[in-house]
């Protein structure tokens, strides 16, 4: 019989609809602004007494608390007001002290019975939730310079161990130069370096009485160093973002030398920028002895007293890369300090050097890579130029009184905040190359909520206009199309929630476009039915032919659009990908609801009935 589905097909459609509604429901429960409390170390566990103390402090500060919970030694306090989230975190941090970490969070408010089946709301992008967007530029020249400095230090140590005398050593843009007094020393050094450093090309020259060995990085080596710098910085930035306690952050590479960092929900943008963009690192060096040659030492000023300076050896014992963990505390005089644990290689090197130099001073050098902008005139126009520079200051110079191991302390810091930031940077790792802020964009929570409200309004207005148009144009069949349209929207939201897709403003545009495309399928079907009726076909035959013969056109139109969406997803980034994801899922749900669901409703309502006239 025409226009009748078998029972199993109706049941299958019903199952899809029930599952879709269940997984779309969590989006009716928006996330609560919250503060998450955890121990600063594995030995610090949050207790019920700590949670009570935190809640009392919030009550005293006039901050409304919705609820609090304690699970797996981690506390979560949900707040009534978004605007009080940052203040609540500061109040909790001051109340509980340094043994605990308070981080901003957005707590899921989905009911437990929905979470039990794995149902969660859609993730919201930066433009909807609010937060900060950074575009970071990796300094490739500095990455090469840092690698050359490390190699030059190792080469000098090798020459000293082999008792090969050299006059001078310089590091260029992509090369290292050694000057020797005799050609014999140069030949020995070249043979030695060729065995250990296969990423250099070697060239000999002579200047006056000096014999110069120039070692230049190969192009492959330069490319590898730059690629490593970006990848290592990616890892370090992800670690730093994790330390900030941000939920669902985005840290990804963009192009050959840029990194995008998006931190949804972050309100303290100053702290985020300070931590993400910080390029602080440490170097441990011995103080130069009185008989140290001038070309083997460098002079640095003290960080807390620029009028003082000290001469240090050029050779670096270890850097902050060898720090496995770091924490903050206070010394016996109440001044902040950082407690450091070194990894195996770093501990061995520190033990060896300190054992051989008891009674000698060792300095901790604090290194920061910075940039400043200045305005210059070019071609009659004023443009901004960015200059990069590096500061190196001594924060500690102390006598080695005994052999040092894997654990020791750094003092000389100005404030507890500085100590906390330094320990965070050391825990998360140092950057392989300096980074600079090429672009910065901040979206406040209120603007994010405004984007959500306007996005929802656009969907509602678009849907309302479509519903009215379909009823006016197609009468009863317009009601069927409207029911399919509503189901399509629910299935699209469920699919995005189930797949963990992130909803952005362009994604909302994709939803609006999907609604139009879903109605377009019904328009093709209904116009085809009208043509069949004008051709004197029976009502049931017209319905049957309308759905069957319009299907090919609907499929072709949606496949071409899906191909474009796939291309956008493949080559696009950020907002473009968000639009492509929503559009792709919308195409699939539109075909299903426009063809299968609407036909099932038609079959159930009028299928197989002897109709004389069709209200279309």
From TrEMBL:
Biased composition (Polar residues): 326-340
Record key words, sorted: Cell membrane, Membrane, Protein transport, Translocation, Transmembrane, Transmembrane helix, Transport
Alphabetized SUPFAM superfamilies for the sequence: Multidrug efflux transporter AcrB transmembrane domain
GO terms under cellular component: plasma membrane
Subcellular location: Cell membrane
Domain SecDF P1 head subdomain positions: 300-433
Sequence segments annotated as region (Disordered): 326-347
GO molecular function, one term: protein-transporting ATPase activity
Residue spans crossing the bilayer: 455-472, 479-501, 507-529, 550-572, 578-602
Ranges for domain Protein export membrane protein SecD/SecF C-terminal: 438-602
Domain SecD export protein N-terminal TM: 2-104
Membrane topology (UniProt): Multi-pass membrane protein
Pfam families for this protein: Sec_GG (PF07549), SecD-TM1 (PF13721), SecD_1st (PF21760), SecD_SecF_C (PF02355), SecDF_P1_head (PF22599)
GO biological process, one term: protein transport by the Sec complex
Main localisation: membrane
InterPro entries the UniProt entry points to: SecD, SecD-TM, SecD/SecF_arch_bac, SecD/SecF_CS, SecD_1st, SecD_SecF_C, SecD_SecF_C_bact, SecDF_P1_head
Residues annotated as domain Protein translocase subunit SecDF P1: 230-287
HAMAP family, alphabetized: SecD_B
Function: Part of the Sec protein translocase complex. Interacts with the SecYEG preprotein conducting channel. SecDF uses the proton motive force (PMF) to complete protein translocation after the ATP-dependent function of SecA.
Subunit structure: Forms a complex with SecF. Part of the essential Sec protein translocation apparatus which comprises SecA, SecYEG and auxiliary proteins SecDF-YajC and YidC.
Family: Belongs to the SecD/SecF family. SecD subfamily.
Name of the protein described by the UniProt record: Protein translocase subunit SecD
Species whose genome carries this gene: Kushneria phosphatilytica
